[in-house]
Amino acid sequence: MELTQRRALLEKRIKQMSLEVSATQLDQLVDYLGLLEKWNKAFNLTAIRNPEEMIDRHLVDSLSVLNIVQGPRIIDVGSGPGLPGIPLAICRPDLSVTTLDSNGKKTRFQNQIKLALGLDNLTIINGRAEQCEAEPFNEVISRAFASLSDMITWTRQLCATDGVFLAMKGQYPAEEIAAMPEGIRLKTTHPLTVPGTDGERHLIVLEHVPERG
Length: 213
What we know:
23% strand, 7 helices, Ribosomal RNA small subunit methyltransferase G, 7-stranded mixed sheet, Rossmann fold, rRNA_ssu_MeTfrase_G
């Protein structure tokens, strides 16, 4: 798949989602994809190897929450090769994006992307979520990371008291919502439109239950 074809397909998908992405940001997304494909051959960063599939299942899927996240500080937990954190950092320079992953190969790749694309709003942490002691964030997001219960258990300290957890899921996870830890409740759900991808997608927004004063 040639570079111009990749750019055209990604631009088409972005228009299908009614997103506003500049030409420079589109170029950065394509550059990110190219580097991901290159590094993936040596370091096995993702099981998806076809560039067209990478566009739909990685980039487009990540961008499906672009107009929902608010920040200003957001952490992507279990980020892998930087998904959704790096596409969000590219397309939302107003956000302060932190990515967290325990796999050194994947965070080294992310650092290379930060350098190559000049992403000054991106911070990368190599470590385990439950051991991370960063200042709490407004939003904690994860994509295919863990069950809602495990996500809360491992990242609770990373979410500000008035912050939210954003879990990117496939089908609506009714059983997981019913089994959430004490002190956390469902705030809202956003059905996500991900052109080029089969199946349902949802963004589950969770919040702390306010303490009674």
